Amino acid sequence: MNTSYDLYLVTQQDLSEGRSTPEIVEAAIAGGVDAIQLREKHASARDRYELGLGLRKRTREAGVSLLVNDRVDIAAAIDADGVHLGDEDLPIAAAREILGQGAVIGRSVSTVEGAHTAESNGADYLGAGAVFATASKNVADEQNAIGVESVEKIAESVGIPIVGIGGIDRENAASVTGAGASGVAVISAITTVKDPEAATRELLEAVREGRR
User: Fold this and answer.
1) Of the residues 39, 48, 170, 201, which is catalytic?
2) What are phi and psi of 9, to 5 degrees?
3) CATH 3.30.1490.20: does it fit domain 7-211?
4) Domain spans, the chain
5) Active site residue 208
6) Is 39 a catalytic residue?
7) Could you read off the pLDDT of 127-149 as tens digits, one per residue?
């Protein structure tokens, strides 16, 4: 499966201005997003599972990748395309054993050293960040606002795709892909705006402009 994502939506219903995650996902798919990460940090495992079943059906119909944040068990239960892991989650090798060789496994990194380790451990893509200051996630100070210069160093140091994440919007997305990221991952730049479909299209335009 292709893991060189252009635009990657991370879901979070409590940042969706009263709209449901399926509504936001539907709009993002219409706008051209190519990956969805089921996050929903404040929902129970059962609620994430139920939500994930619906998203699995819709993303499969649309040909969009569905990944699960952190929870390898939920990814397996809903037959997601893969999982995205952070520092406190299962090791990549353990996730691979559970999900199989065909699963997509992403890993959050903020340094060149972390990127090297994740690649050598078998990650399929990296989420590099937080690129800019973010309020959508709890990020340690040393991992917040690492800047496009760090994205460039990480991109140059590995042979797998990376997506920039953290504080990214249509105004700065081009600088992230211009630094070597294959694409960007966002939460609030899609979930909080009045027209998520239009925002998705604008973000994609910026991503592709940066690559040019």
Assistant:
1) 39
2) -95, 130
3) no
4) 7-211
5) no
6) yes
7) 999 999 877 666 666 667 899 99
